[in-house]
Design brief:
By secondary structure, this protein is an alpha+beta fold. The chain has a domain of 102 residues: PAS domain (Beta-Lactamase), CATH 3.30.450. It contains four helices and five strands; from the N terminus they run αββαααβββ. The protein has a five-stranded antiparallel β-sheet.
Length: 150
């Protein structure tokens, strides 16, 4: 798999309220049709917390939100794991943001996921890395709808 390091310019923050949306609606839409999980890693303790969709993406059992790092690593393609660990390291040491598309075990096959993370200051600590992980699909034409909850 070819590897590409992207040089990203900082994007301007898009204010969802400028088009009449709430932050809750943005999150709701982002996770409406795919597994879309949120996570954090405390750099002092190593505590890795994740929402249920992260567990589903990695085909792991949720245990109170605390992610087992050993089991987590076992689900990542061995060729991709060193690069992902480098992303975590660079993010924490250089206080950067990153994204990576990598392979995660799904039965006997592999699926692609994308992780976007960033360093976040946390007073009185070394900080933390927070991020999102979601299933990454190839581009194809598709449509899906949900029933209204109203």
């Amino acid at each position: 798999m070819p590897l590409r390091f992207d040089q990203l310019d900082h994007k301007q923050f898009q204010d969802c309220t400028s088009v009449g949306m709430t932050e809750h609606e943005v999150v709701e839409l982002a996770q409406a049709f795919r597994l879309y999980g949120f996570w954090s890693i405390n750099l002092d303790t190593g505590l890795f917390l994740a929402t249920p969709d992260v567990y589903r993406i990695f085909d792991m059992q949720s245990e109170d939100g605390r992610m087992n790092l050993v089991e987590f690593r076992e689900h990542i393609h061995p060729d991709d794991l060193p690069i992902l660990m480098e992303c975590f390291e660079r993010c924490s040491s250089q206080k950067q943001s990153y994204h990576m598309i990598y392979r995660v075990k799904r039965g006997a096959d592999w699926k692609f996921v994308r992780t976007v993370g960033k360093f976040r200051e946390k007073p009185g600590t070394s900080g933390e890395i927070v991020g999102i992980t979601y299933e990454f699909f190839e581009r194809l034409r598709t449509a899906a709808f949900t029933d209204s909850d109203d």
